[in-house]
C-alpha cells in the first residue's frame, strides 16, 4: 500500500469515527458531519410557557427532539430520524407534534435513487406523554382556539385508475380528522386544501378528485359533524383563505374555456358562517362585463375579504386567447385562390376553371403548382435584439418573463353593489393597503425606470389611492427611494410616514399635506455609517404607536417619541450618544399587535458601538425611559413571549459559546434560567479562546475597529498565524458564534481558530471613487495594529475574501506585501470591463451596482477614468508578489467568470504563483456539498503550507495535467 493510499484510508476511517462521543481538540474537515449542535431556529415554546421543544444532533446524522420543562429539570427525548422537523403545540398546550423521518443513511440513499422519503406524524399528550402516530403524512394542522381536533392530510393514494384520470391531474388525497380527546377518526377523501377558522369550529376544505367527480368547496361544522357543499362543479378549486377573524373565506374556481389557452377563474366568497352556514357569492368579471376586455381573475393571487366584509380583494391578469381554427370552407377557398394565382395557364380565370373541370372529369394530371409555404415551417433566427431604448436589458426581461406573466393587478369587487374597482394598473403595479383598507398607496416608477436601470438611483411618484373608487392622487413627485427606509401607515390610516431629504415627514392621506416632524429635533436621522453613493440615507424607524399619537424614531444613537404633528419630541434614552449606545432592533412580543402599544412593556435590542457589547432594554408600560437590562460581550437573540404566558424566552451566545436558550418569568430578566446545553463540556474551548476588539487609525485618519478571534489553544505572549477575512464592516458581529460547517465561500472561522489560527476581521470605511484604495487605507493599518498586540505573527499573515471581499483581496495584494498568501473568491478584477457587463443572476447591468451600491463610484468610467484605473487590480498587477488562489465558477451570475480568468491569465503571463479553482456549473457561491468540502480543504491546505510550513499540496506545487484530473479528484474524495 502506498503512502498516499494509507493517508486516504486514514481519512475514511476518521470520517466514520463517531465524533459525537469523543471530541478531539483539533477538528478535521471530516469531523464536521458528526459535530453536535442545537437547531435554535426551530425551537418552539408552548403557548402556556411551560415547555420548550427543540431539535439537536450531528450536522449529518440522526437527530433527537427534546421536550424540556421550564418549571423543573424534566425533559423527554424522541428520536426523529435524519431530518429536522417543525414543532407545533395546540393552542391550549395539551399536545405537541412533530415529524419522524427515516434514518439519515436511508434519506441519502433515497435521494440518490430519487425516491421520496415518507414522514410519520407523532402527537404527544403533555399530561402523560402518551402518543399516537400516523404514517405517510403530507401536512397537518391543529384546530386553532378550539384545540380539540387535528386535520391530517396523507400522501397520494397511489396511481390513478385510468389514463383519463391521470390527465385530470387531481391533487386530492385522504384527510383525516382526529379528535384529540375522544380519539375518534373521520376520513374525508380527495382533499387538496383545508383550513380551520380562528375559533376552530369550522373546517373549510376543497375536494379535487379524479375526473373532477364531486369537486367543490365544503364547510364542516365540527360541533355537529355536518358538512355542507357550498359549491359543486366540474372545476378545480384553489387558494382557500380565511379572514383573520375566522368569519369568512374566499377562494378561486377554474374551468376550461375553449376561447382561452388557460383556464378561466371565478371568485368565490363565503360569509355569514354562523347565521346561514355560509352565504356564497360568485364573481367572474367576464359575465358581468366589468373587468377590462382581455383580462380576467388571476390564478397567481390569493383573494381575501376586507375587514368590513363588503369587499373582496383579488388580482386580475391578461387572458391569452386561443387561436380560432379556420373553417373547412375557408381552407378550400384559400387553396383555390392559391391555385388560381400560381397556375401556368394563360387562359382567363373562367377558362382555367373549365380546364380544371375537364381535367377532373377525365382524370388527367393537374398542372404543376408552386408549393404554398406555411410561415410556421420557416426557420427563425436564434437571436436577441438589444435596443438602447429598452427600459430593462433583454436578459433581464428573459429572466423575469415568468414573473411578468404571473404579474397580477390588484383589484376589488364590492360585493353588495356588484361593482368592480381596478386599484393597480400598468404604471402603479402594486398597492399597499391601510389598516382600515379604505385607502392605499403605490408608486409609479415608469418615468424613472430607464435611468434607474442605468445608474441605480431610484425614484418614484407616490400616489394615494381611494379603495372605494380606485381614484389616484399624486402625493409626492420624484421621491428618492435609495435613501428611504420604509413607508408606514398610521393605525387610523390617516397618515403615512415618509423619509425625505434627511427628515421624517408625515403625509395626511386625506389632504395630502406634508409635515416635517424632525426639523426641530437637535439630532440627525441620516445614517452616519452609510458610505455608498446615496445621499442622506435614512435610519430605520419603528413606526407609529397604537394610540395614533406618536412615531418612534431613532437617530444614530438615541430613541425619540415624536408627535404626529411634529410639535413635541421626547427622548426615551438618556443621552446614549455619550456612551455610544444605540437601539439595534425592536422586539414585538404581542403577535396580535400591528403597532407599538406603549401601555404594554416593550423591549429593544441594544448595542454599544464602541465595545460591540449587545443586550436588551425595556421600555416599561407607560414608561418614559429605556432601562438597559443586559449589556455584555454577548449576542442577544431577541425575546419571544408565548401568547398565554408571561415567560420570556431568548438566546444568548458568545464568539466561542454556542447559542443557549434561557427563560425568565421576571420582566426585568433578573431571574433567568438556562434551558439548554448546546455547548457540551467536551466542546468548550475547542473552537476558540474568545475575541478581542482592536481600535486603530486608518490612513484616512478615521478611528476604526477590528475583531481578533483567538485560536483555541491560545497562550498569552505567543504569536499565531493569522487569516485576515474582509468584507466591508464586520465588527458588529464580534460576539456571534461560528458553527463548524462546510461553507459556500470556503472559509469557516471556527475551523481555523480550532486549528491554531487567529482570525482578524477589520472594518472598512469607504471614500467615494476609491473603493480599492479605501480597503488598503483600512486593512493594512488594522493588520499592523493586530501585530502590535503580539497575538498575530507578522511573518505569517494571509488574507481572504469572497465576492466584494474577493475584489478587495485581489486589490490589496497589488498595494502591499504584508500578506504571505491570499485567496480571492469570485473577485471583480477590472472595474472598466466589469462596469458594463451583465449581472446574470438578475439580467441587469452592473452599472447601477457601481454607481449606487458597493462600487461607490459616482459616474461611468468615461468621466472618471483615473478612479476606475486606480481601483482596478488588473492595472496594478505587475506589483503582485503574494501567492494567490482564485476561486471563480463558470456559471457565476454575479461577478462575471471572465474577471477571474483575466486576472489568472495576467498573473500567469507574469509568472506569478497563482491557481484558479473552477467548480463547473456552480454560481457565485458553492451549493453542492462535495464542492464545498473540496474548496474548504484546499484552502486550508494552502494556508497551512504558507503560514505553518506544512508540505505543499501537489495541486499547488506541481499542477495537475488535465488527463490526470479525474484520478486526482478521486483520490481526494471524502
UniProtKB/TrEMBL annotation:
<feature type="domain" description="Peptidase S9 prolyl oligopeptidase catalytic">
    <location>
        <begin position="780"/>
        <end position="949"/>
    </location>
</feature>
<dbReference type="InterPro" id="IPR029058">
    <property type="entry name" value="AB_hydrolase_fold"/>
</dbReference>
<dbReference type="InterPro" id="IPR001375">
    <property type="entry name" value="Peptidase_S9_cat"/>
</dbReference>
<feature type="signal peptide">
    <location>
        <begin position="1"/>
        <end position="20"/>
    </location>
</feature>
<dbReference type="Pfam" id="PF00326">
    <property type="entry name" value="Peptidase_S9"/>
</dbReference>
<keyword id="KW-0378">Hydrolase</keyword>
<protein>
    <submittedName>
        <fullName>S9 family peptidase</fullName>
    </submittedName>
</protein>
<keyword id="KW-0732">Signal</keyword>
